Amino acid sequence: MVEIIKPFAEWCSAIIEAFGIGIIAAFAVYSIVMSIVRLLKRRQINTIIKEGRQNLGRGLLAGLEFLVASDIIHTVAVNLTFETIGVLSIIVLIRTFLSFTLELELTGHVALAKRKKILSNQGSMPVELE
């Protein structure tokens, strides 16, 4: 059974990793092309840079999610040792930090600390997070 699952997991991991890389590359090209189009339309340079960075950041966030999924599949299904689990932990930690900082850069605030009203644990009193 392991002989069947291991090659399948390797292929799945490789396909998901390629998809993540493709997303990052596609968003990079899209960001560059759209920046050039906006530049030709004589938009303000600050707006062009901001929108280009946001497009690229969104692509990086999406691509990183697929790369993390690929690493998890590869580590758990293909090569499960304490060393690979440690390496996976470090990779996931670094990529999570990158995702966190990219989200902060794109939106200007932390996703969990958005100012919005939610119901408290009692379910009746609205509370505002800061």
TrEMBL record:
Keywords: Membrane, Transmembrane, Transmembrane helix. Pfam families: DUF1622. The keyword Transmembrane applies. The chain crosses the membrane at residues 18-40. InterPro entries: DUF1622. This is DUF1622 domain-containing protein. It comes from the Bacteria.
